[in-house]
Design a protein that fits this description.
There is one protein chain. The chain has about 130 residues and is mainly alpha-helical. It has one domain: Globin-like. The protein has six helices and no strands. It is globular. The structure holds protoporphyrin IX containing FE. Protoporphyrin IX containing FE binds next to α3, α4, α5 and α6.
Length: about 130
């Protein structure tokens, strides 16, 4: 009698809305498939421990979408230090990320929300190459 179907007191996070962990995993897998297939980008990833990188990217995406995993965003600075990522290559990765979310039917407002986070971390990622 007190049950009211459909009534909920907890707000649904963007993470839950897009399908949780399996969707995040799929997004990350697709993203690195595209990045490694891109002639301008693939060299950056030579010798990189991809399973570890994908794991960290999944944690970051979960974090940004309000999921259970957290990732210390300030680590992005040290992770990209010395890679010499150019503004054009940064943009290219952002475009792939947005494209993957679009492919997975993530709602546009969530894609834009992720885009804002990516824009905010740009100064941590685009740095002059180490001399
Ligand atoms: C667009 C925003 C980007 C985000 C959110 C991002 C996110 C990440 C994350 C979470 C890691 C793992 C760091 C860790 O181990 O804790 C990582 C590592 C890495 N990223 Fe990015 N990244 C971005 C852009 C780029 C770009 C533009 C490039 C190069 C074209 C790039 C190349 C790399 C490489 C090579 C590593 C591995 C570094 C290593 O382990 O030695 N990233 N990135």
């Amino acid at each position: 009698m007190s049950d009211s179907p459909g009534a909920t007191t907890t707000a649904t996070s963007a993470y839950e809305l897009i399908g949780g962990a399996p969707s995040v995993r799929e997004a990350v897998d697709r993203l690195y498939t595209y990045l490694l297939a891109d002639e301008q980008l693939r060299e950056y990833f030579d010798g990189v421990d991809l399973p570890r990188l994908k794991g960290h990217m999944a944690m970051l995406l979960s974090h940004v979408l309000g999921g259970p995993a957290t990732y210390p965003v300030e680590h992005l600075g040290s992770a990209h230090a010395g890679l010499g990522v150019s503004p054009a290559h940064y943009e290219r990765v952002v475009q792939y990320a947005a494209g993957v979310l679009f492919e997975l039917h993530v709602p546009m407002d969530i894609i834009l929300q992720v885009g804002q986070v990516l824009a905010s971390v740009q100064p941590l990622i685009v740095r002059p190459a180490a001399a």
